[in-house]
Specification:
seven-stranded mixed sheet, 123 residues, four-stranded antiparallel sheet
Length: 123
Amino acid sequence: QERLLESGGGSVQAGGSLRLSCAASGNTRIECMGWFRQAPGKERDGVAGISTYTGSTVYDESVNGRFKITHDSAKNTLYLQLDSLQPEDSAMYYCAARKAACGSLIARVFDYWGQGTQVTVSS
């Protein structure tokens, strides 16, 4: 098992920025990490993913270049830089990890999940 703990969420105005962090603990081999988000009444959707091996990234089309996912192997920490935030970005953001290589950003294939950190963007 792998423990994931998100932080960095908060309330910002439209156009603002946040940097989310996900501290991972445990010695489980993790090849893929990602961020998902879920707004009230909606499905949990993939935002971004990264290979911890190669650094290759994938983003959901809704991001439109505004977010950047990174992973610090030395700190065993995943990050998501959120820029140009819009009200539609408001959601609970979850960190996730997968033992297998990254594929599509589908929540059901990820093995481990954090508790989430709330992002609220006001217009």
